[in-house]
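Most newcomers find our protein records easier to grasp once they have seen one. Sequence and backbone structure share a record, each on its own labelled line. Nothing more is needed to start thinking about how sequence determines fold. As an example, a complete record with its sequence and its structure tokens follows.
=====
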Amino acid sequence: MPSAQSAESPRNAAVCRDAVLAPLFWAAFRARTREQCEWIYPTGPAAVCVRGTDPIRILIIGDGAAAGCGVLIHDLGIAGFLARHVAEHLGRGAIVTVSAQPAASARSTLDCLASVDLEGYDAIVLMLATTDAFCLTGRRSWQRSMTGLVEALTSARCASVCVTSTASMNLTRSISPVARALTGRHARMLDGETERICSRLGVPMITLTAVNDLTSRTYAMWGHRIGTHICRAIRR
């Protein structure tokens, strides 16, 4: 029967490898985010409004997917589809505000959270992990930042706070197979930690279906899934 020490050896080796590679992956990620020709994001006001009485107010915080990577306007991103789903199913108006940065990490989001007004929202959605998966963020750093974020968001006392899983590691087709395998494995590790944090703090975690491209079709699917949860929470 393998000893506990032998079982820990592969994990320790992976941690050491990630610690060595993390600065290289971060530099590569930052370089790619500066190549504007490869990245499309919405322009204009970071909010989508659906007219109706007593509008539901939702805040989306996060990284690239939350910011609407792949579409030109927020109406075609997660904010637009989430607003329309909630408005239709609750028979009310909806205002979805986006507070996201393409290269945001859990740590940078926590550092900036003090400048975000969390009051007055009916629901808050936290969409992170993609940047941290690409950059091989350490387990302890992720635990500290995500715990701080979830605790801060739940203190806002809105009807619904939820956290999503990593957007998708299928989007890394442009990087090498080795880097793709590493980021995919790291994303699964981060999702596992997020699930444990959410379970401990009593916050639901919503798993996003893996996709190959961030398109309006993707955002429609995710908006439906997140919106269904928000509608249930608000009806309670």
